[in-house]
Amino acid sequence: MWSSASRRDAGQGHGAVPEMLRQWIPGGVTHSVMQATAPASDLLKRSAPSRIVVVASELYRLASLNLNNLNPSSSWCPAYLYYVSKYANICFTLELARRLEGTSVTANCLHPGMVDSGIWRNVPFPLNWALKLVVKGFFKTPAQGCQTSVYVACSEELNGVTGRYFMDCAERTLNRGAMDESKAKKLWELSEKFADLRPTDPKI
Ligand SMILES: NC(=O)c1ccc[n+]([C@@H]2O[C@H](COP(=O)([O-])OP(=O)(O)OC[C@H]3O[C@@H](n4cnc5c(N)ncnc54)[C@H](OP(=O)(O)O)[C@@H]3O)[C@@H](O)[C@H]2O)c1
């Protein structure tokens, strides 16, 4: 649960995309997550048992991941970039878990629920007014919304559990595409290039 990657890295080269989406461009997200995770990896291994928790989203189910077009900015639905980024988060986490096998560092991902957080602040008018009613009326409060993250980060039940997906403090199944190991491996390799890391880098 890091936010240490630089904002410039996350949004590079996508100036036409609104701010809310610019933060979630798939290549940028995996790249940023990797840049955030890699330098911490040594420390996590030295502090093992330790846990990496990636906050993904159920909205990944509305997307697919095309490795030849990681940033499908021409989609008719601008939010599609976000869905793809969450898909990439999940593939990244599962591959990271495989690569960390035997280190006592675990990597899991989760959906926090729909939460009344700052994520909605850049939704444009007039959509923001309608959304505000839905968010205030039906979404989880921040305290409720962090429960699954805290559970995955801290619960003793999850000692040694890795490469899984959680929602409402329980494990959930992923769709077959998100569990595709060869796709995740290729995404990892592409992300290594974006993040300018080498497979032999001791940090990864
Ligand atoms: N809210 C929901 O309903 C919902 C549902 C499913 C999944 N999620 C996921 O939950 C996670 C947390 O989102 P949230 O709802 O808590 O949204 P949020 O209130 O907007 O928080 C996002 C956090 O990420 C930081 N951040 C954004 N872009 C960054 C970047 N490029 N580099 C470094 N830090 C960056 C923000 O920093 P600043 O505050 O300084 O801008 C903020 O602290 C996200 O991964 C989101 O996709 C949220």
Automatic annotation (TrEMBL):
Ranges annotated as spanning the membrane: none
Alphabetic keyword roster: Oxidoreductase
Gene3D superfamilies reported in the protein's UniProt record: NAD(P)-binding Rossmann-like Domain
Organism, scientific name: Aromia moschata
Single GO MF descriptor: oxidoreductase activity
PANTHER family reported for this sequence: PHOSPHATIDYLINOSITOL-GLYCAN BIOSYNTHESIS CLASS F PROTEIN-RELATED (PTHR43157), WW DOMAIN-CONTAINING OXIDOREDUCTASE-LIKE PROTEIN (PTHR43157:SF66)
Protein name: Retinol dehydrogenase 14
